[in-house]
Write a structure and sequence with these properties.
Order of helices and strands of chain B: HHEEHHHHHHHHHHHHHHHHEHHEEHH
Largest sheet of chain A: none
Largest sheet of chain B: 2 strands, antiparallel
Strand content of chain B: under 5%
Oligomer: heterodimer
Number of domains of chain B: 4
Low-confidence stretches of chain A: none
Number of helices of chain B: 22
Number of domains of chain A: 1
Radius of gyration of chain B: 27 Å
Helix content of chain A: 55-70%
Mean pLDDT of chain A: 90
Shape of chain A: globular
Order of helices and strands of chain A: HHHEHHHHHHHHH
Number of strands of chain B: 5
Structural class of chain B: mainly alpha
Low-confidence stretches of chain B: none
Helix content of chain B: 55-70%
Structural class of chain A: mainly alpha
Distance between the termini of chain B: 77 Å
Mean pLDDT of chain B: 91
Strand content of chain A: under 5%
């Protein structure tokens, strides 16, 4: 009973808080640009509206066009439940769940990509090709980050791996994971969520043909993924598992807020990179994680 | 009935199938019965754990027949019987007498010969007999690959396979002969205490490695798998290359291996995994692409096996068992999902007559069964939860992560292997998004993709069975652990451990919950969409007025970013005629990824040997005068030698 309640509360927190992040980012961007900007809760309004709207389906699509977003959304939610919340741990934790976490996100990517290719549009094909190609590099980076945490804690369970701080290499790991966060969530400088030129987009171009409830699932899933990466970054760096529950949650919320503002600032101050430079930046993120791994290796006495 | 009787039934069934090759129905019944009996025998062995050992006074080639079914044999025999049964049923609709009057009866005979001899390879415990049945299995496979003799590509593929296999057999001849010479007997069995046998491992690695398709020994594999009939591709990729893995597992278990062996196997595994999938991305031919994925998956298996060998040479570390369990389970998993994918590709080929992906598209409309089962197989091979591919990769990962935590000799190598495995997984995902998207989704790119038909139930049923097996291993992995533990114990007695050190129960429960939630969410969203109302429009092509189906992204353009990263090894050849002038009349672009190892290393070496031989041939042209001249030269040389060397 308590387990069920625990899972329910976490689920509610993840689902309800996630759409806040894009709102904060947009507010920061508006503030830097001297505009008033959309309300922080804009995504909630959008989601509520989309959920009630009718759907325009392309004549080319198969049922995968609707099923894909649903499956991807579930995969992201389930991955979120694997992440621990400070000292409270994860609602589900076992040896090897760190790898499950990575592969669940890959599963979500697989489903969204197939749903996009389903429309037969050349632009969406481009978006998918970019998404799955760049994901190769970000997956290498994230696996290396997990290796760093594994060296540090001698564990392959997220709840144990994320409890202490990342030690001497924390700054390197934070830099690497922040790069992965930007790339995986299609933010500037990898992708521009606001551009109106389909040729230059990654994520947004994959969902051009989605509408109504499936689009709501995709948008909500994307905001969840952003929150998930922000939490992962925070917990990998800060020793939240060593604090008591309330300070840990406070610190977690504060750091996620800081990360969100940082994303907003990056988006305001940087331009999007040319596509041929994206792999270089991602390789840099991977190298940050690799150096963090080396630091951890030297730092922990065998 | 004991395993012995069941195996006898299996052998009789398959042999009866050979003799009844002109009667398709009798052949079908006999072969399926044989496969079922072999399956029962292998399950029996794995369930009871009792080794079946049978020695006869029946003498072949001066050696007594000795058959043995232990954990490893039974483990591979299960896969053989499942894939053999599935392929048999599939071929009864795919390669019928009506469509292929010349080759179908012969194909049935060779098919049963292949199954029978692969079964014997798994059972033989005598080096001489092992070689005989190994050669027979190779020959049967050759005739199956070149079943469509009228096509030059099939003949060339068969010839390449034949040549490569005989290099492998040559190494195995040397291996078994040296083994017999040093031990004084052709009998095989555990002889780990004879340290002097360790160097023989390298011969076995090359011999079995060619068969398994390890990079760079894989040269025969892509064309053979692409040009064989699809049920043959399925068994070749699912089982025949696993015979190479069987050989490596068997003889690293029975014989001592050099200290460096584990490292070499793991390094070959990493190379095969990453480059296999890179080459797969560069392919535009559906079956050739799947063939390169076999190289990738063999790589994953070898990473597990290599680290298990390293663990054994460092005192049976616990992570070695996880790596070995992952490798063995991946043998099953790859056999199941790759056979499923090849059978799916066969249905596409059957319906459209082309393997060229960029001419297909939108096949899901006419082929919903094939399309969904292919997507299931693609999810499994990309190693995604909740299916079986993830379970085995996860076990290998866990073994490697534990090796990193243990911080022993292997830790640094394990770090590299983990990163390579992660990259391989992401590349495989990209590749299968490409395949599913280009072949089954979108709109038909050419007319051939418009008029297609779904395959019949005898082709659908084997695919359904293989798909169900993939789901079963994914959702309830713990049920299959006893089989893994028995096989691991047969490999190294030190690894006998009935309880997994990985939380497979938790993983299974998680996968079940995930599968249930996924289905619920899909139904829920589907109903919501229906409730809100659906209207149909053409795909939004960003305001372009007259989009056509040919504007869709193709296989080549999709993989372009990644193949660009691997240009240094893929060396794609591009021929472009770009549009010129205000009214361009003609433009085209052709891209082709060559077989780098074959075309840049093996063929130049071969032609060099040929040129040297041709040059040497000038010495012998049949003129008596020159022969007298050679004699004279020889005499002079001898005379000089005698004078210079002194008269000792």
């Amino acid at each position: 009973m308590i387990v069920a309640l625990d899972i329910f509360l976490r689920l509610a927190a993840w689902l309800l808080l996630a759409p806040l992040l894009p709102g904060i980012i947009n507010k920061v961007k508006a503030w830097v640009a001297g505009r008033r900007g959309p309300p922080v809760l804009q995504l909630y309004f959008d989601l509520a509206k989309l959920w009630r709207k009718g759907v325009v389906l392309s004549t080319a699509v198969s049922p995968a066009h609707v099923i894909g977003p649903a499956v991807a959304w579930v995969a992201i939610i389930v991955a979120a439940l694997l992440l621990p919340i400070g000292p409270a741990g994860a609602s589900l934790s076992f040896r090897g769940d760190a790898l499950l976490f990575v592969y669940l996100l890959a599963f979500a990517r697989f489903c969204i990509a197939l749903a996009a290719l389903d429309t037969g549009s050349a632009f969406e094909g481009m978006g998918v090709a970019r998404e799955v190609s760049y994901a190769v590099l970000s997956e290498a980076a994230i696996i290396t980050a997990l290796l760093t945490l594994c060296v540090q804690t001698s564990s392959v369970a997220l709840a144990t791996m994320l409890a202490p701080s990342a030690g001497a290499g924390a700054a390197l790991l934070a830099a690497g994971l922040f790069g992965v966060l930007l790339a995986e969530n299609c933010r500037v400088p990898f992708d521009d969520p606001n551009t109106h030129l389909e040729l230059t987009m990654i994520h947004e171009v994959m969902v051009l043909d989605h509408s109504g409830p499936p689009l709501a699932a995709i948008l909500h899933g994307a905001s969840l993924k952003l929150l998930l990466f922000a939490v992962l970054l925070t917990e990998a760096v800060l020793p939240l598992g060593k604090l008591s529950l309330l300070p840990a949650i406070g610190a977690l919320l504060a750091s996620v807020f800081v990360v969100t503002i940082a994303i907003g600032l990056v988006e305001s101050l940087l331009a999007r990179l040319a596509f041929r430079r994206v792999p270089l930046l991602l390789t840099t993120a991977f190298l940050f994680c690799l150096f963090a791994l080396l630091v951890a290796w030297k730092g922990v006495a065998p | 009935m004991t395993p012995g009787w069941l195996l006898l039934v299996a052998g009789v069934g398959l042999a009866a199938g050979i003799s009844a090759f002109k009667l398709p129905r009798v052949w079908l019944a006999a072969t399926l019965a044989g496969a079922a009996a072999a399956f029962a025998a292998a399950v029996w062995m794995l369930a009871t754990g009792a080794v079946w050992d049978w020695q006869l006074d029946f003498i072949i080639g001066g050696e007594k027949l000795h058959l043995q079914l232990d954990g490893i044999s039974a483990f591979f025999l299960i896969l053989l019987s499942i894939l053999g049964g599935a392929g048999t049923l599939y071929s009864s609709e795919y390669w019928t007498d009506k469509m292929h009057p010349d080759s179908a009866p012969a194909g049935r005979a060779w098919w049963n010969g292949l199954l029978l001899n692969m079964g014997f390879v798994l059972l033989c415990a005598n080096g001489l007999h092992f070689l005989i049945v190994w050669e027979l299995f190779t020959v049967c496979a050759y005739f199956l690959i070149s079943l469509e003799r009228q096509r030059p590509e099939a003949r060339a593929a068969g010839w390449l396979y034949f040549a490569a296999s005989h290099v492998a057999t040559l190494c195995l001849f040397a291996f078994f002969a040296l083994l017999a010479a040093r031990t004084g007997s052709w009998e095989l069995g555990p002889m780990r205490e004879h340290r002097e046998l360790a160097p023989l491992f390298w011969l076995a690695l090359v011999g079995f490695g060619i068969k398994a398709g390890i990079f760079p020994l894989h040269i025969w594999l892509p064309s053979a798998h692409a040009n064989a009939p699809s049920h043959v591709s399925a068994i070749m990729s699912g089982m025949a290359i696993k015979m190479g893995i069987y050989g490596l597992v068997r003889f690293t278990g029975w014989l001592p291996a050099p200290d460096s062996a584990g490292w070499v196997v793991a390094a070959l595994g990493v190379i095969s995994a990453v480059l296999g999938v890179a080459f797969a991305l560069g392919q535009h031919d559906l079956k050739r692409l799947l063939a390169y994925h076999s190289v990738e998956n063999i790589g994953i298996i070898l990473i597990g096996l290599g680290f298990a060998m390293i663990a054994v040479s460092h005192g049976n570390a616990a992570w070695g068992q996880l790596a070995l369990a992952g490798a063995l389970l991946h043998v099953w998993n790859h056999g199941l999902f790759k056979a499923l994918l090849f059978l799916g590709a066969g249905s596409v080929l059957h319906a459209t007559g082309t393997r060229e992906m960029s001419r297909l598209g939108g096949l899901w409309r006419a082929m919903p069964w094939t399309g969904s089962l292919f997507a299931l197989g693609a999810t499994a091979i990309a190693g995604l939860p909740p299916l079986n591919g993830f379970v085995s990769e996860w076990l290998v990962y866990l073994g490697l992560f534990d090796a990193v935590s243990a911080r022993g000799h292997a830790a640094f190598a394990a770090i590299l292997a983990v990163i390579a495995l992660g990259v391989t997984g992401a590349l495989a995902l990209a590749c299968f998004v490409k395949v599913c998207g280009v072949v089954f989704l979108g709109l038909p790119r050419t007319e051939i993709a418009e008029h297609v038909h779904e395959c019949g139930w005898r082709m659908r049923l084997p695919m359904l069975a293989l798909g169900a097996a993939c789901v079963a291993i994914g959702l309830a992995p713990i049920l299959f652990w006893p089989a893994l533990a028995t096989a691991a114990a047969a490999w190294q007695p030190g690894l006998a451990n009935a309880l997994p050190s990985a939380p497979l129960v938790m993983l299974g429960a998680f996968h079940l919950a995930l599968a249930a939630l996924v289905i619920l969410a899909a139904i829920f969203l589907w109903r919501r969409v229906k409730q809100n109302g659906v209207s149909r429009e053409g795909t939004w092509d960003c305001g372009y007025a007259a989009p056509t189906a040919r504007m869709q992204y193709t296989a080549g353009s999709f993989a372009g970013i990644i193949t660009g990263w691997f240009d240094w090894i893929l060396r794609p050849q591009r021929h472009a005629h770009l549009p010129k002038g205000n009214f361009p009349a003609h433009a085209d672009f052709v891209e082709h990824t060559p077989e780098t190892v074959l075309e840049n290393i093996v063929e130049p070496t071969g032609s060099l040997v040929m040129r040297v031989s041709m040059a040497v041939r000038h010495l012998q042209h049949g003129r008596v005068q020159s022969y007298i001249f050679y004699l004279l030269l020889g005499l002079v040389a001898l005379a000089i030698l005698a004078v210079m060397g002194g008269a000792k």
